[in-house]
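In response to reviewer comment 3 from the previous cycle, which asked for concrete evidence that the modeling workflow produces usable outputs, we include below a single protein chain processed end to end. The sequence was submitted unchanged, and the resulting structure tokens are shown without manual editing.
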Amino acid sequence: MQRFLNWFNTLYPVWLVGLSVIAFFYPQAMLWFDKNWIFWSLAASMLAMGLTIDLDDFKRIGKMPGSVALGFICQYTAMPLIGWLIAMLLRLDTGMTVGIILVASCPGGMASNVIAYLARANVALSVALTLASTMVAFFFTPIWTSALAGQEVPVDAWGMCLSALKLTVAPVLLGVLIRWKLPKTADRIGAFGPTVAVLAFTLVTGGIVAASADKIASNFGTLALAAILLHVAGFFVGYAVAKILRFPDSIARTVSIEVGMQNGGLAAALARQHFATMPLAAAAAVFSGVTQNIVGAIVAAWWKRRPPAS
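The workflow returned the following structure tokens.
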């Protein structure tokens, strides 16, 4: 069973792109996956993440404060500003602007931990950064979205804060609590955690692509360009800043991956809930989610063949 799950999880980009194509050409196949399904599937993936985390993961943050601080600052300063700059340079319409800024303001996703492993980066740091950025997403994601997109459209920062709390902090803490009190149960359920996350974001992507197929078709080139620029810039800036500050190559790779890869599922869920009248906001989020996994896989394949410089 575990070998099958590992095989299934490894092919995550294939499932993601495959279901996106099906949903695009045959929207009726995924239109059933609406806002409620999106919310609960994302909450389930965050719970699964919490089940894989123990108290040592929190302690690990304190053992590498400089590396965590570097990744955290780049994640929540450089990336939102890059998203805003791309939206301004490409003169995106309001919906796409909100979507790109929203995804750029989100925490790292669980997929970044897999990419870090494949790229011979520091997996422990990757997990610590994902955890740290996720636990404070309820504050930083709404604040950045409001600050950078508030001039384009009214942003309910407090409402987004509550939604992010329900989608991230609450289920992650519940998972951590279960692992603390019922470790054997957490081990049994947590073994399926990565698969739950793969299924969740794949289905979220399919549902939003189906609901926005017409808008995506008429804005495909712009969406693709914005998403590619966002994530390529994120990977580059994360790596460059770490190297300029003379961090080891394995740390630079990890920061690059964490900055370049966001929780696209969270961005999509928040877009559907708080910007429902702008289908391109959610479309930009899922487009970004697909793009970052493709870019991440290419980066991982490149670095996998090149051991980190000591």
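The mean pLDDT is 86. We consider this sufficient to address the reviewer's concern, and the full set will be provided in the supplementary archive.
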